[in-house]
Amino acid sequence: MTLVKSVHYAAISVEVNEDGDTVATVNGMYNGYDGVYVPEEISVDTLIFNREFTTSGYSTIVLPVDINGSSIDGLRQVLKFDGMGVDGNGKKKVQMRAVWCQNDVNEACSSLSGNLTAYTPYIIQLADNTLTFHGKQKLLPTETPETRVGDWVFRGALERREWYDGDGEVGKVYGYAAGNATGVSAGDFVKFTNGAWIRPMRAYLINEPLDRSFARGLNKNVKVSVADEDLPETIEVEVIYEREDGTEETTVIGHFNTRTGEFILNRPARTFDLKGRNVNGTPKAKGMYIRK
Q1: What does the mean pLDDT of the chain come to?
Q2: What does the pLDDT look like over 178-189, one tens digit per residue?
């Protein structure tokens, strides 16, 4: 089909063909440093998310549209950041709340509204390694993609983000890996170390107290963030399912060690490095690894 117009917003492109159909494509493999910026609402006939996901673990995602989970084929469940809790031993745990899921995941899934909001970071579990969007959609103007609960922020990336020694976020940032990596298993949260990076339209967790954000804007030399030693060594990751009657059920999906970068799922999994390469075997490095 011949294209008559093509506009690029970094990882998102919008094309109009000779039949007048508008197609928006999110390039899940975009690796550039230009940030996603959609300046205005754009109606499209077709939305394509060009990214191969893993079905063996979990993935992070940011969408440029408001949509119901039932309009996306390939999803098994969608989770949003609900804050940090405390487990039975008094240790911190990451809490994710189910937004939408297939009925065979949990009996509470049938009562969920399933509405996903544009520029909100989510964790998803896949039933297939690709996502298919049904119906016409509206790309919405770009907003900062983050969910804050207290001093913790689940933040989406709009451009390639890298962390190196000297970056004030190193040691404060955690990533939720969709696949596995050297020293990390699928579905893991690990603490970022020197050299970690992620592509746009994915998300990471960061400890960022409000006073740090304020101080950073006034004086970059002011250090008010939590010290590395005050952050948890290991964190339990659980999913909260809420039933229609308001009762809740929680399911632990794994633990991760923020010092070694190791994550243990409640089921076996393969291992991938940060660039998505299969690297099964003895862990050789610490750090953040995220499925392509």
Answers
A1: 77
A2: 455 556 555 555
Single-letter amino acid code for the residue at 6: S
Measure CA of the first residue to CA of the last residue in the chain; give whole Å.
Answer: 29
pLDDT tens, position by position, 113-127 = 899 999 999 988 889
Task: Name the residue among 171, 187, 178 with its Cα closest to residue 287.
Answer: 171
Amino acid symbol at 140: L
CA distance 236 to 252: 7
d(CA 7, CA 16): 9
Q: Which two tokens stand for residue 225?
A: 């963030």
Report in angstroms the alpha-carbon separations of 125 from 216, 222, 283. 35, 39, 25
pTM of this structure: 0.79
Contacts of 210 (CB under 8 A, 6+ apart): 151
